[in-house]
Amino acid sequence: MTSISATENGVTDDVLVVGLSCDSAKKLRIHSGSIKLDEKELISALTDLGATGSYDEVVKIPGTSTKLLVFTGLGAPLQDGSFSHERLRRAAGAAARQLFGHTSATFALTHRDDAGFAAVAEGALLGSYEFIEFKGASAVKDHKPPLKKIAIHSTITRATRAKALVSRAEVISRYTALVRDLINTPPSHLTPDSFSQRFKKLAASSKASIEILNDAQLKKFGYGGTIAVGQGSASKPRLVHISYSPKKAKARLAFVGKGITFDTGGLALKPAQGMEAMKSDMSGAAAVCAAALAIAEMGLEIAVDAWAPLAENMVSDTATRPSDIITIYGGKTVEVLNPDAEGRLILADALVRAAEFGKKAGGLDLIVDVATLTGAQSVALGTRTSAVMTNNQSWSDRFLEISESTGELFWPMPLPEELRPSLDSPVADIANIGDRMGGMLVAGLFLKEFVSDDLPWLHLDIAGPAFNTGKPHGYTPVGGTGVALRTLVALAEQSAGK
Ligand code: BES
Ligand code: MN
Ligand code: ZN
C-alpha cells in the first residue's frame, strides 16, 4: 500500500513530478507550482526529446537537484490558464503508473485551489495500483511495485486542510483498490459466499454492521429473483446488507449493487469470446459495499444501507429456463424470457427490500442502484461514460453535478414510457426483456416497476466503464476500474453537509 503526505518544503525525494502543457501554438510550459526550475533550459531539452505535453504523455529526464524529473502531460490549458481537476487527477495518475519500481516521489503540479490539490493526491494514489495476487513467486520477485511513498507539494493549500485532504484521498483510493481487487478476482476465487465473507471481515472492524442472508433464507423470505438466477450454480446466492447509521444522521441513502460473480448468460449462453470479462459483473455490488464502508470510515453524518444481491449465472439442468415464471420479493411475478437478462431480476428483489427496510428505519431520501446491466450501455455511451436514469430530475441533476467534481463521467438517459409495453407478458406481471432497440432504457424501465414513484431513485448503468479491456490511461488500470465509488461517497458527503 502506498502512503501519502502533504508537503510545503523543498523536495527531498529522488523523483519530482511536474506538469507539462501545450497551447494551441504548440508552445510547451512547465507547471511545477512554487518549485523553481530552469524552465528555459528544460523546455529546450524537452523539445529535443519530442515531448508534446499532451494528455497521458509522461517524459522522464535526469534531474539536477533530484535524480529524476518527470513531466506529465496536461494538454492545453483552459481559457483562464488553469487545468480542470480531472486533468490534474489523470496527469498525476499517468505519472504514478510510469513510476513503478521507484520508492518515493514528490508531485508538484500547479493547482489553484484545495480541490485541485486533492485531485493530484487522488490521481497519484489511484495510479499506484497493482493486482498481483495470482502471480507466481518468481514473477512477484522480479516485478516492479508501485511507489511506496508519495508527497503532494502545495503552498496554496493550508497545512491542516492539506492533511485532511490527503487522508480523504487515501481512504478513497484504498476502497477503490478494494473494488478493483474484487472485480479482478476470477470466479474460481470469488463466489457469492466469498464476496460476503470478505465484507464480513471488513465490516467487523468498521462503524458499519453487516447482515448476510444465505440461500435457505433467501428462499424462505421470497427473494425469487436472486434464487432463480443462482439456482444453476453450485455456489449458492447471498444477499449482503451493510448498514451505517450514525446517531446524528442528516439523511438516509440506500445503495443497491448488482452482484453477479460470473455471467455466462445461463441457458442463453454468451459466446466464448469476451465471456471472461463477465467476472466484472459484480462491479456494482463491490462499489456500493465499499462506498458504505468508506462513508463509515469517514464518519459522515449520514445513514447508508448498501445492498448486494449476489449470484452466479450458470448453465445447468437446474438453471432457470426461458418461459419460467418467478416471484420477486414483495410479490410481483416475472416471466423470464431471457436468462441472460439476470441483473434486473436480482436488483428487483434488492430494490424492493431496500425500500421496505428504509421505510421502517425512518424513511429513505434516495435509493441508487449501480449495475453492469446492459451491453447497450456501451453501445450508446462508449466504454468510459456511464448512464444515469431516474424518476426524479432534481436528484439526477445533483448527482451529475457532483460527478463533475469527482471526475467520473456520467450522462443522463431517458426512460421513455412508450418502451414500457414491450415488457408486457401474457402470463406474468412483466417479462424480463422487451424491445431490443434502446435496451439500456428498457432495462431501466423494468427496474422502475420495482421502485415506488414517490421514492427518488437513480439507476446507474456502468456496464462499459466498470472494466477496462483496453490499455491503461490516466489513473485507470487495465481490468476493474472502481467506477461509481467516488461519486457515491461524494454524494454522501454532500448530503451530510460536508
Ligand atoms: N452483464 C450483462 C451486461 C454486460 C455486457 C455488462 C457487456 C458488461 C459488458 C447483462 O447481464 C446482460 O447479459 N445483458 C443482456 C441483456 C439482454 C439479454 C436483454 C445484454 O446486454 O445483452
Ligand atoms: Mn447477462
Ligand atoms: Zn449480467
Structure report:
It contains 14 helices and 21 strands. Helix content is 35%, strand content 21%. α2 runs parallel beside α3 (114-127) and α3 runs parallel beside α5 (159-184). It has helices at 39-49, 85-97, 114-127, 137-142, 159-184, 192-204, 215-221, 224-230, 283-298, 343-360, 375-381, 393-406, 439-448, 485-495; strands spanning 3-7, 15-22, 28-31, 58-62, 68-75, 104-107, 149-153, 209-213, 238-244, 252-257, 259-263, 303-313, 324-327, 333-336, 366-371, 386-390, 410-412, 430-431, 457-461, 467-468, 479-480. Strands 8, 9, 10, 11, 12, 15, 16, 17 and 19 form a 9-stranded mixed β-sheet that branches. Strands 1, 2, 3, 4, 5, 6 and 7 form a 7-stranded mixed β-sheet that branches. A hairpin with a 5-residue loop joins β4 (58-62) and β5 (68-75). It folds into 2 domains: 3-170, 3-Layer(aba) Sandwich (Leucine Aminopeptidase, subunit E, domain 1), CATH 3.40.220; 190-495, Aminopeptidase (3-Layer(aba) Sandwich). The structure holds ligand BES, manganese (II) ion and zinc ion.
List the helices and strands and how they pair.
Elements: E1 3-7, E2 15-22, E3 28-31, H1 39-49, E4 58-62, E5 68-75, H2 85-97, E6 104-107, H3 114-127, H4 137-142, E7 149-153, H5 159-184, H6 192-204, E8 209-213, H7 215-221, H8 224-230, E9 238-244, E10 252-257, E11 259-263, H9 283-298, E12 303-313, E13 324-327, E14 333-336, H10 343-360, E15 366-371, H11 375-381, E16 386-390, H12 393-406, E17 410-412, E18 430-431, H13 439-448, E19 457-461, E20 467-468, E21 479-480, H14 485-495
Parallel strand pairs: 1-7, 2-5, 2-6, 6-7, 10-12, 10-15, 11-12, 14-18, 15-19, 16-17
Antiparallel strand pairs: 2-3, 4-5, 8-9, 9-12, 13-14, 16-19, 20-21
Helix pairs in contact: 2-3, 3-5, 5-9, 8-10, 9-14, 12-14
Residues 263, 265, 340, 342 line the site of manganese (II) ion.
